[in-house]
């Protein structure tokens, strides 16, 4: 099943009628249609004897080399595969205790809006003030650690990354798939630039690894999970080699509203449990972020960091999802960043897709500065929320939303106390 896209990826969970005794996470197949359909399978980690991918495939009379087996997931966080399954395959899989999650491959979309703009966002995440100008490179980025994310690994799970862009300073590499992770769409390159480019990025010394899960803006949910699989495997290997500073996955993608994906969300949760930080966009539906995946894994509901969007006036963007699944807000309107039209190309885009990588960059920045935070996603999430500015963001949001403006830790301490109080007062009276 192909993905439509629009600036923030959206993953759709197919509805299935349950049987009288359905197992958690397993879609029941009640129709007689023998047409092969792509399914994602995650093995059950709670079995007394961990199931083997090869044995499950063998029960289906398949191997990893079979033409209808698309992806193999095998890492410390989750294990499974995606397969073009006929009726017999689906029936067998649904009956296996070794299968924890069985779900139809789902559609994703990128929620992108293109508008003119400038990198005012870098100043906003350091001061909280809505000073400066929307257009032009006239804002000031303040930071208190010269490492600027040096050595930290940022995995851009997106449309790929144009690694030849000069603003990446040679720090961007193609990661997955090995046959080529270049960006033919532009979205992934723009996201990467916000997180870590020299001029427009937060962590301007971090490593950028392109993970092309949505080639040219389209793909399948199995390829997104395949991208997560690659990131966790590489994280595990660097940890084993003793070369790991820290890993953060940036996902500016989401399911269509109301169509959540348990396989996607469980893979995200498992990656965090394995020690990989995960930052996700809240979604561009103007509704409850808990109604989409993977944003449902954020906020008070899960371990990921979910990010909503604000405009230049520190008001929640009309398109941004809100609610208890949102952790923090970041600039997401009229954002300039790297693009694919040439080695110095830029573009202006808007969306929660643009807000999320600001937080990704802050996570990378902190991983390089604090080794303990680098290995503890839960502590990092708490740090992000504790250092965020309260009483600064305005706008209408759903109940349970804390309305926090992300901050890189510079706007703290006695020297900034008066300024923060002034910002809070202005937000209340606005």
Describe what this molecule looks like in 3D.
By secondary structure, the protein is of the alpha/beta class. The protein has two domains: 37-104, Alpha-Beta Plaits, CATH 3.30.70.80; 113-414, Peptidase S8/S53 domain (Rossmann fold, 3-Layer(aba) Sandwich), CATH 3.40.50.200. The protein has ten helices and 14 strands. It has helices spanning 53-59, 87-95, 120-127, 187-196, 221-241, 262-273, 352-369, 371-374, 377-386, 414-429, and strands at residues 37-43, 69-74, 79-85, 99-104, 113-114, 153-158, 172-176, 207-212, 247-251, 277-281, 305-310, 328-331, 335-338, 346-350. Strands 7-8-6-9-10-11-12 form a seven-stranded parallel beta sheet, sandwiched between helices. Strands 2-3-1-4 form a four-stranded antiparallel beta sheet, with helices on both faces. The radius of gyration is 21 Å and the shape is globular. The N and C termini lie far apart (46 Å). Mean pLDDT is 84; it is low at 1-25, 111-118, 412-420 and 426-430.
Helix and strand element order:
EHEEHEEHEEHEHEHEEEEEHHHH
| CATH architecture classification name of the largest domain | 3-Layer(aba) Sandwich
Uncertain stretches = 1-25, 111-118, 412-420, 426-430
Into which percentage range does the β-strand content fall?
15-25%
Instruction: Name the structural class.
Output: alpha/beta
**Total domain units:** 2
Radius of gyration over all CA atoms, rounded: 21 Å
For the largest sheet, list the strands in their spatial order: 7-8-6-9-10-11-12
Shape: globular
Taking the sheet with the most strands, its summary is: 7 strands, parallel
CATH topology of the largest domain: Rossmann fold
How far from one another are the termini?
46 Å
**CATH class category name of the largest domain:** Alpha Beta
The number of strands is 14
The residue fraction in helices comes out at 25-40%
| CATH level-four homologous superfamily name of the largest domain | Peptidase S8/S53 domain
- Helices, by number, come to 10
Mean pLDDT value:
84
